[in-house]
Amino acid sequence: MNIKNKIKILVDGTASLNITGTMNGTSFNLAKTLMTAEGKVDYFSKTPSINLIKDHELASERSLLLSLADPSNPSPISFTEFISVENVTAPGREYFPFEITSTDIKSTRTQLSPTISHYKITDLKIEARSVQHNQTRTITGTAEFLICEIA
Fold this sequence. Notes:
mainly beta
């Protein structure tokens, strides 16, 4: 499958993740969460990616974006948290980006047909540091998803 040459992909899958963190030096467990997978393809580079999302468009949301530029080795692009803000003059969402500081992902990719691949991430560990605040996140877990090319 050469998904780099395709404009659209369809993704179905989930990730089971544990998210821990620190805030001003204090450690805490944030969530054990099941995240759904959405497919994206960058229009200009044609690079496919998987966006693992929890609570999309709700009061708080987490997003982990994985690149498939090298289809055999998924790699993190970004981790972001969003919080809804109730403000009379400008309601919306507050954006909290994190910089990826280290990553370790063990995965397998199985080609099921010329247009369908199965990915299984058996071990994922990503460490990230808040761009705006004195916070860190450690994301660990597993994921499994199917990717289908749409020409």
